[in-house]
Write a structure and sequence with these properties.
242 residues, alpha+beta, binds calcium ion, globular
Length: 242
Protein backbone atom coordinates (compact mmCIF):
# COMPACT_ATOMS: atom_id res chain seq x y z
CA UNK A 1 0.00 0.00 0.00
CA UNK A 2 1.35 3.36 -1.03
CA UNK A 3 -0.33 6.77 -0.77
CA UNK A 4 0.82 10.13 -2.16
CA UNK A 5 -0.82 13.55 -2.08
CA UNK A 6 -0.40 17.01 -3.51
CA UNK A 7 -2.28 20.27 -3.10
CA UNK A 8 -1.88 23.52 -5.00
CA UNK A 9 -3.45 26.97 -4.73
CA UNK A 10 -4.06 27.10 -8.50
CA UNK A 11 -3.57 30.08 -10.81
CA UNK A 12 -6.29 32.47 -9.61
CA UNK A 13 -7.00 32.21 -5.87
CA UNK A 14 -4.95 33.84 -3.12
CA UNK A 15 -5.43 31.11 -0.55
CA UNK A 16 -5.67 27.35 -0.58
CA UNK A 17 -8.79 26.19 1.27
CA UNK A 18 -8.29 22.56 0.31
CA UNK A 19 -6.61 20.14 2.69
CA UNK A 20 -5.46 16.54 2.55
CA UNK A 21 -4.14 13.99 5.00
CA UNK A 22 -2.33 10.70 4.60
CA UNK A 23 -1.96 8.47 7.61
CA UNK A 24 -0.19 5.13 8.03
CA UNK A 25 -2.04 2.86 10.46
CA UNK A 26 -1.12 -0.64 11.66
CA UNK A 27 -0.52 -3.71 9.44
CA UNK A 28 -0.56 -2.02 6.05
CA UNK A 29 -3.69 -0.03 6.79
CA UNK A 30 -3.93 3.66 6.05
CA UNK A 31 -6.10 6.72 5.66
CA UNK A 32 -6.45 8.98 2.62
CA UNK A 33 -8.49 12.14 3.08
CA UNK A 34 -9.35 15.18 0.96
CA UNK A 35 -11.38 18.25 2.04
CA UNK A 36 -12.45 21.39 0.19
CA UNK A 37 -13.45 24.20 2.55
CA UNK A 38 -15.96 26.95 1.88
CA UNK A 39 -17.37 29.99 3.63
CA UNK A 40 -15.66 33.34 3.38
CA UNK A 41 -12.09 34.46 3.75
CA UNK A 42 -11.33 32.61 6.99
CA UNK A 43 -14.13 30.06 7.07
CA UNK A 44 -13.04 27.80 4.24
CA UNK A 45 -9.50 27.36 5.57
CA UNK A 46 -10.75 26.79 9.08
CA UNK A 47 -13.41 24.25 8.14
CA UNK A 48 -11.11 22.07 6.04
CA UNK A 49 -8.36 22.32 8.67
CA UNK A 50 -10.69 21.22 11.48
CA UNK A 51 -12.09 18.37 9.36
CA UNK A 52 -8.63 17.09 8.55
CA UNK A 53 -7.47 17.29 12.14
CA UNK A 54 -10.55 15.79 13.80
CA UNK A 55 -10.98 12.97 11.27
CA UNK A 56 -7.31 11.98 11.46
CA UNK A 57 -7.29 12.12 15.27
CA UNK A 58 -10.50 10.12 15.60
CA UNK A 59 -9.30 7.40 13.26
CA UNK A 60 -5.82 7.26 14.75
CA UNK A 61 -7.23 6.98 18.25
CA UNK A 62 -9.86 4.32 17.56
CA UNK A 63 -8.31 2.28 14.76
CA UNK A 64 -7.38 -1.26 15.72
CA UNK A 65 -5.87 -4.00 13.52
CA UNK A 66 -8.45 -6.53 14.66
CA UNK A 67 -11.52 -4.31 14.62
CA UNK A 68 -13.25 -5.99 11.67
CA UNK A 69 -15.32 -4.70 8.77
CA UNK A 70 -18.36 -3.44 10.63
CA UNK A 71 -16.28 -1.42 13.09
CA UNK A 72 -14.27 0.07 10.22
CA UNK A 73 -17.47 1.28 8.63
CA UNK A 74 -18.73 2.72 11.89
CA UNK A 75 -15.37 4.42 12.49
CA UNK A 76 -15.27 6.34 9.20
CA UNK A 77 -18.82 7.57 9.76
CA UNK A 78 -18.04 8.52 13.34
CA UNK A 79 -14.94 10.47 12.28
CA UNK A 80 -16.97 12.62 9.88
CA UNK A 81 -19.70 13.18 12.46
CA UNK A 82 -17.05 14.34 14.95
CA UNK A 83 -15.67 16.76 12.34
CA UNK A 84 -19.17 18.01 11.60
CA UNK A 85 -19.77 18.70 15.27
CA UNK A 86 -16.40 20.45 15.77
CA UNK A 87 -16.85 22.73 12.75
CA UNK A 88 -20.45 23.55 13.62
CA UNK A 89 -19.54 24.43 17.22
CA UNK A 90 -16.56 26.57 16.17
CA UNK A 91 -18.75 28.49 13.72
CA UNK A 92 -21.35 29.11 16.42
CA UNK A 93 -18.73 30.70 18.65
CA UNK A 94 -17.28 33.07 16.05
CA UNK A 95 -19.50 35.26 13.86
CA UNK A 96 -16.77 35.57 11.22
CA UNK A 97 -16.87 31.82 10.70
CA UNK A 98 -20.66 31.51 10.53
CA UNK A 99 -21.83 29.16 7.81
CA UNK A 100 -18.43 27.62 7.10
CA UNK A 101 -18.28 24.03 5.93
CA UNK A 102 -16.22 21.59 3.94
CA UNK A 103 -16.52 18.67 1.60
CA UNK A 104 -15.00 15.40 2.75
CA UNK A 105 -13.97 12.33 0.84
CA UNK A 106 -11.96 9.75 2.73
CA UNK A 107 -10.88 6.14 2.34
CA UNK A 108 -9.81 3.99 5.26
CA UNK A 109 -7.70 1.24 3.70
CA UNK A 110 -8.04 -1.86 5.81
CA UNK A 111 -7.66 -5.56 4.99
CA UNK A 112 -7.93 -5.21 1.20
CA UNK A 113 -10.96 -2.98 1.40
CA UNK A 114 -11.56 0.75 1.23
CA UNK A 115 -14.12 2.13 3.67
CA UNK A 116 -15.23 5.35 2.04
CA UNK A 117 -17.12 8.30 3.52
CA UNK A 118 -18.24 11.14 1.28
CA UNK A 119 -20.02 14.50 1.61
CA UNK A 120 -20.06 17.21 -1.09
CA UNK A 121 -18.42 17.32 -4.50
CA UNK A 122 -14.91 16.07 -3.83
CA UNK A 123 -14.60 12.72 -5.54
CA UNK A 124 -13.24 9.20 -5.38
CA UNK A 125 -12.25 7.41 -8.57
CA UNK A 126 -10.93 3.92 -9.06
CA UNK A 127 -8.47 3.07 -11.82
CA UNK A 128 -8.52 -0.65 -12.63
CA UNK A 129 -7.82 -2.60 -15.85
CA UNK A 130 -7.16 0.59 -17.83
CA UNK A 131 -10.49 2.01 -16.80
CA UNK A 132 -11.30 5.02 -14.62
CA UNK A 133 -14.57 4.82 -12.71
CA UNK A 134 -16.07 7.58 -10.58
CA UNK A 135 -17.30 5.86 -7.42
CA UNK A 136 -18.85 8.81 -5.56
CA UNK A 137 -21.79 10.90 -6.75
CA UNK A 138 -21.48 14.63 -6.14
CA UNK A 139 -23.95 16.17 -3.72
CA UNK A 140 -24.62 19.16 -5.97
CA UNK A 141 -27.44 20.82 -7.88
CA UNK A 142 -25.63 20.21 -11.12
CA UNK A 143 -25.38 16.47 -10.40
CA UNK A 144 -29.14 16.45 -9.77
CA UNK A 145 -29.62 18.04 -13.20
CA UNK A 146 -27.39 15.37 -14.74
CA UNK A 147 -29.46 12.69 -12.99
CA UNK A 148 -32.64 14.17 -14.46
CA UNK A 149 -31.05 14.11 -17.91
CA UNK A 150 -31.01 17.92 -18.20
CA UNK A 151 -27.22 18.16 -18.55
CA UNK A 152 -24.53 15.85 -19.90
CA UNK A 153 -21.52 15.13 -17.67
CA UNK A 154 -19.37 17.21 -20.03
CA UNK A 155 -21.75 20.18 -19.75
CA UNK A 156 -21.81 19.72 -15.96
CA UNK A 157 -18.02 19.83 -15.75
CA UNK A 158 -17.89 23.43 -17.02
CA UNK A 159 -21.28 24.69 -15.81
CA UNK A 160 -21.04 28.09 -14.03
CA UNK A 161 -23.16 26.80 -11.10
CA UNK A 162 -21.10 23.64 -10.59
CA UNK A 163 -19.81 24.90 -7.21
CA UNK A 164 -23.19 24.83 -5.47
CA UNK A 165 -23.21 21.78 -3.25
CA UNK A 166 -26.25 20.38 -1.49
CA UNK A 167 -24.41 18.88 1.47
CA UNK A 168 -21.34 19.94 3.44
CA UNK A 169 -19.69 18.98 6.70
CA UNK A 170 -20.13 21.50 9.54
CA UNK A 171 -22.95 23.64 8.17
CA UNK A 172 -25.71 22.07 10.23
CA UNK A 173 -25.78 20.19 13.53
CA UNK A 174 -26.14 16.91 11.67
CA UNK A 175 -24.92 15.70 8.28
CA UNK A 176 -25.93 12.92 5.92
CA UNK A 177 -22.89 10.86 4.92
CA UNK A 178 -22.57 8.49 1.95
CA UNK A 179 -20.69 5.32 2.86
CA UNK A 180 -19.21 2.78 0.46
CA UNK A 181 -17.18 -0.37 1.00
CA UNK A 182 -14.94 -1.38 -1.90
CA UNK A 183 -12.97 -4.56 -2.31
CA UNK A 184 -9.49 -3.76 -3.58
CA UNK A 185 -7.52 -5.82 -6.07
CA UNK A 186 -3.72 -5.74 -6.34
CA UNK A 187 -2.72 -2.90 -8.65
CA UNK A 188 -5.90 -0.89 -8.10
CA UNK A 189 -5.40 2.84 -7.81
CA UNK A 190 -7.79 5.13 -5.98
CA UNK A 191 -7.84 8.85 -6.69
CA UNK A 192 -9.37 11.28 -4.21
CA UNK A 193 -9.62 14.85 -5.50
CA UNK A 194 -11.31 18.21 -5.16
CA UNK A 195 -13.34 19.83 -7.93
CA UNK A 196 -10.30 21.94 -8.86
CA UNK A 197 -9.15 18.78 -10.66
CA UNK A 198 -12.44 17.23 -11.76
CA UNK A 199 -13.76 20.47 -13.28
CA UNK A 200 -10.64 21.02 -15.39
CA UNK A 201 -9.67 17.51 -16.46
CA UNK A 202 -11.78 14.89 -18.21
CA UNK A 203 -11.97 11.30 -17.03
CA UNK A 204 -10.01 10.32 -20.15
CA UNK A 205 -7.17 12.69 -19.24
CA UNK A 206 -7.08 11.49 -15.64
CA UNK A 207 -7.13 7.83 -16.70
CA UNK A 208 -4.32 8.39 -19.16
CA UNK A 209 -2.11 10.01 -16.53
CA UNK A 210 -2.75 7.18 -14.05
CA UNK A 211 -2.05 4.53 -16.68
CA UNK A 212 1.31 5.90 -17.74
CA UNK A 213 3.03 7.21 -14.62
CA UNK A 214 4.27 6.16 -11.20
CA UNK A 215 2.34 7.49 -8.22
CA UNK A 216 4.28 10.68 -7.36
CA UNK A 217 4.54 11.73 -10.99
CA UNK A 218 0.84 11.09 -11.51
CA UNK A 219 -0.01 13.51 -8.70
CA UNK A 220 2.37 16.15 -10.09
CA UNK A 221 1.06 15.82 -13.62
CA UNK A 222 -2.62 15.98 -12.61
CA UNK A 223 -2.02 19.22 -10.69
CA UNK A 224 -0.09 20.63 -13.66
CA UNK A 225 -2.91 19.69 -16.04
CA UNK A 226 -5.49 21.43 -13.84
CA UNK A 227 -3.33 24.57 -13.79
CA UNK A 228 -2.91 24.41 -17.55
CA UNK A 229 -6.72 24.17 -17.75
CA UNK A 230 -6.96 27.56 -16.03
CA UNK A 231 -6.28 26.68 -12.40
CA UNK A 232 -9.39 28.66 -11.43
CA UNK A 233 -9.69 26.80 -8.12
CA UNK A 234 -7.48 25.09 -5.54
CA UNK A 235 -6.40 21.63 -6.67
CA UNK A 236 -5.87 18.60 -4.45
CA UNK A 237 -5.16 14.97 -5.34
CA UNK A 238 -4.41 11.95 -3.20
CA UNK A 239 -3.59 8.67 -4.93
CA UNK A 240 -3.60 5.24 -3.30
CA UNK A 241 -2.03 2.14 -4.82
CA UNK A 242 -3.01 -1.19 -3.33
CA1 LIG B 1 -12.97 23.72 -4.82
Amino acid sequence: MKIVGKTDVGMVRDTNQDAFKILALGQGAGLALVCDGMGGAQGGDTASYIAKKVIAETIQEKYCDTMGAEAAKILVRESVLQANHAIYQTAREDAELAGMGTTVVLALLYQNHAYVAHVGDSRLYRYRDHQLTQLTRDHSYIQEMVDRGELSPDQARVHPDRNFITRAVGVQWDVEIDLHVLELEPGDRLLLCTDGLSSTCTDEQIGEVLSQNPLEESAEILVRLANQGGGHDNITVVIVES
